[in-house]
Amino acid sequence: METAIEPVRILLVEDNPVDVEIAIRALEKGHVKNALTVARDGQEALDILRDGRSLPGIILLDLNLPKMSGIDVLQAIKGDPRLRRIPVIVLTTSSREEDVIRTYDLGVNTFITKPVQFEDFIKVVTTIKEYWIYIATLPVR
Amino acid sequence: MQRGNNEDLPMCVLVVENNLADRELLVRILGETHRSIRVSAVGDGDEALALLDKACRGEFPVPNLILLDLGLTKLSGREALRAIKADLRLKSIPVVVLTGSILEGDVANCYELGAATFVRKPAAFPDFVKVATRIRDYWLEAAVLPGPAREREETLR
């Protein structure tokens, strides 16, 4: 089941440099070399998605972003016929019920709260990676 | 308000699967968690919609997560997914499509319709157990699901 796995292009939308570092470590670890692109704010994420390059297999999206909020980015992705089928995983410090319901209503594929502890954060990112790479069938790889 | 993953509140998962052996296995594996959980299972798309309709009327807990097979008989999984995502009371519930019967275009189509994930059901039993276990760990341990059943019922009333 876990053999012959193609690497996945991942777009990480995150402005906190420490969280970016942790996510990179967890996402790039292992025998599958995933191609990771980082966008530091919401506008940059949409620019990357709309510049005609190949689309990512999954998008990891923080909610609290400069310039354009994660909710607005999610709404733009899920409202764009070219982008809306790409799975978006919200990874955020928020655990507010309003954010959870709002993002699921907008079509988020999973809402995940970012753990405060470093080790737990690594573990969560690894779980996300393994689920989407080994278990899910992606619309784009 | 409590977050969706509050461990004291029961989570409700609905399994829609017409193969009895697969259905029983999913119910068993999903139930093997330290969380308080209620797993309900039905065998067809029309039964699923009937149960969800009852849930909207407050006669049954609103599921926090749905596992949906595509190869159903009376009402297909695609039609059930379309109906769930078109219903404002139900659309926030993540629907994981878990199916062995895959037609051309199914993957893209299910994501377009709003499936949270498309998962191929492996034919070999040990692989199916592994996949079901990963689904459980991802959705019931890592993810925050939209509201515990009790709260959802309150907000829907």
Your description of this structure?
The complex is a heterodimer of chains A (141) and B (157). With 141 residues, chain A is an alpha/beta fold. Chain A is 40% helix and 16% strand. Chain A has five helices and five strands. Chain A has helices spanning 17-28, 42-50, 70-78, 97-105, 118-135, and strands spanning 9-13, 35-39, 58-61, 88-92, 110-113. Chain A has a five-stranded parallel β-sheet with strand order 2-1-3-4-5, sandwiched between helices. In chain A, helix 1 packs across helix 5 and helix 2 packs parallel to helix 3 (70-78). The longest helix of chain A is centred in the C-terminal third of the chain and has 18 residues, at 118-135. The mean pLDDT of chain A is 91. By secondary structure, chain B is of the alpha/beta class. In chain B, 43% of the residues lie in helices and 17% in strands. Chain B is built from six helices and six strands; from the N terminus they run βαβαβαβαβαβα. Chain B has helices at 20-31, 45-56, 77-86, 106-113, 125-142, 149-156, and strands at 11-16, 37-42, 65-68, 95-99, 117-120, 143-144. A five-stranded parallel β-sheet of chain B has the order 2-1-3-4-5, sandwiched between helices. In chain B, helix 1 (20-31) packs across helix 5 and helix 2 runs parallel beside helix 3. Chain B is globular. Residues 1-5 of chain B have low confidence and may be disordered. Chain A binds chain B through residues 1, 84-87, 95-98, 100-101, 104-105, 107, 109-113, 124, 127-128, 130-132, 134-139, and chain B through 1-5, 91-94, 107-108, 111-112, 114, 116-120, 122, 127, 130-131, 134-135, 137-139, 141-147, 151. Strand 5 (110-113) of chain A pairs antiparallel with strand 6 of chain B, so a sheet runs across the interface.
